[in-house]
User: Fold this.
Amino acid sequence: MTFDSTMFFILLFVAVFLISQALIVPAAGQKAKHKELTKRLNETKGQLDTESINLLNEHYKKSLSPLDKKLVIIPYFANLKKMVELAGIKTSLGDIIIRTLLACSVVVFVVLLLGQPWYFGPILSALVVIAVYMYVNWKISDRLMKFEEQLPEALDIIRRMLQTGQPLVQAFKEVGEELPAPAGDEFKNTFNLLNFGYDMKVAILNMADRVPTVSMLAFSSAVLLQKDTGGNLTENLQKVSEVLRARFKLTRKIKTLSAESRMSAWILVLMPFGLFGMLTILNPGYTEPLYTDPRGMKVIGFGMVSLMIGALWIRKIINIEV
Assistant:
């Protein structure tokens, strides 16, 4: 097999991998994009005193490993650390980076050991980094989706606790004990912050940062609004719970209705690869000019770019925000 054909199959693999990721449309679990709720919470954050923010940052840094404390000083690694926490991965950021670098080193060593061109090492190492990044993003979507499913039940538990005369802090503890992760863990963390003496506003905003979904923003806004202006929190939570259940039901319905479109997208995007594979097996000489003739490589590059644009365009059409 020549170098051109080897490079062709590498590009083919990368294209299939990226296109498959582009067509993954989560039913829920997307990061919040609601402008009004986000704006309201940002205004509330601006009202927090500097002392509370500093105490919260110190409390957060105590839970980090020594290596992570040094990494989060850099904004880029601080964002990566937030992604890891949002994905619910217990491994520290430093360990993930070290393991990824070790995997890249092994890949480079194997490439050199097999006598392949040296630049295959950086290419495959980049694929390893992309695979790790996409895995973290997949874990984030999966975790946020589970949280969205559990939040209405959590609100019902809080509402029942408030109706029996229990304080909101005790209701958070009850949710943390009754529900599994991720909702149980998040409410338990919020209860611990309140137990340490943090203000309710600080704890709620910190929770909204850890789980940035539209549902969480709605719950945070309801609690903060009641704290600032008063009102019946039990009634507000009941309304929020009903809205969240209706929203999640609508999201599931949209996913069901768009299932045919998503299947059509998979078929249309993957058909060229399947057709190429069949032709290669049945008549290898017919497809050989694609990776032996320079013009064939240009056609392949144009086709892969077109497929990526088409996949992203299909995702834009069928990914309806609720």
About this structure: Residues 25-29 have pLDDT under 50 and may be disordered. Residues 51 and 306 are 53 Å apart (CA to CA).
